[in-house]
Amino acid sequence: MKITQLIDFLKDVPLFNHLNNNDLEQIANICSERFFEKGKIIFYEEDLGTSFYIIVSGQVKIVMVSNEGKEHILGLLKERDFFGEISLLDGEPRSATAIALEDTETITITRDDFTRLLRSNPDISLKIMFTLCKRLRKADKQVESLAFLSAQGRVARVILDLADERGEEKDNKIVIYHRMTRQELANIAGTSRETLTRVLMDFNDNKIINIGKNRIEILDKKRLKEQIF
Fold this sequence. Notes:
By secondary structure, the protein is α+β, with helices and mostly antiparallel strands. The protein contains 9 helices and 12 strands.
């Protein structure tokens, strides 16, 4: 990607959209590009944090894996989202594993450059803190779901969260486009694939949602919210 293209991309990244062209050019000059094929591990939990990532295209899932190999998805990140900042901020090993859900292009900033960037642009630190707070609140909701909600309630909450993050309103419906497998959706909801499928079919049969290939359509958001118990 040429410097001019990179600057244009950075302008649309919420983390940097308050900066002027001169600042953006300085950031562009410390960025490097990395490409990860679908399924590639970007970094493992407990790895030392050496880089900060911004997604140019593709999708990344952030996961924690139990000793038994069971995966729990903490977040799904898309174009212009960032990740990998926590280890750079606190100096501790990575707190989770990052995996490319599809072919993914990123730009990265090394730890030293990232630290200098934060020192020279305090507003970026505030935006990162805001994003971290949103992720923490989401993590709190996930813990609450696992502790108190039925499988039906957990699946309903996952669908509603996906609608908030990436839903598109079309013809009185909310359409969620995704490329996740049923197992990945189940991992987010903290349930088995079989249970997830049963709940989705129940919602589909009751005309609360409509399930299609790589998409979920919410037909009745009010009734879907009522399933959270």
